[in-house]
Write a structure and sequence with these properties.
With 152 residues, the chain is mainly α. 76% of the residues lie in helices and 0% in strands.
Length: 152
């Protein structure tokens, strides 16, 4: 056995088993809110000025309390859905999914209103790029409401 292998085995055997088990996997990174992703995607290649950026941030900050209210109203339904799935209660799960979809629809509605408020803050050439980007954002918002499901 090579000396490097022996050294490695000695180091590994010196580590207590409890220390190896104590390591927990890192939590997955938290996704940014839907409104932030939609604004970023719609401003792709737009390059707003510092003044425009401040106005855009103010518009998003103005909408944030509405989103918090909707998100907080959705939390009990998410818990009801989880419990209904564990108990194999199809009717309760369906009711919770419908309520969650209504909440996601409200979030998408606030996001669309925010994007409509941002557009006038841009110049004509920026608006053209913004409109092009918006064509990609709209289907993404629809998928968010449906949770990736296709119509039908």
């Amino acid at each position: 056995m090579r000396a490097s292998h022996r050294l490695f085995l000695m180091m590994v055997s010196a580590i207590p088993l409890s220390a190896m088990q104590a390591q927990t996997p890192a939590a997955p990174p938290k996704r940014p809110p839907v409104i932030a992703m939609a604004v970023r995607a719609s401003l792709f290649h737009v390059q707003p000025t510092v003044e425009q950026q401040t106005k855009i941030k103010a518009i998003v900050a103005q909408q944030r309390p509405r989103l918090v209210v909707v998100r907080d109203s959705m939390k009990p339904w998410a818990e009801k859905l989880r419990v209904a799935r564990q108990q194999h209660d199809t009717a309760a799960a369906r009711e919770a999914r419908v309520a969650l979809r209504r909440g996601r629809l409200a979030i998408a509605s606030v996001t669309r209103q925010t994007l409509l408020q941002i557009r006038p803050e841009l110049t004509a050439t920026q608006q053209a790029q913004f409109d092009t980007n918006l064509q990609r954002v709209k289907p993404a918002l629809t998928r968010f409401v449906r949770r990736g499901r296709r119509p039908g």
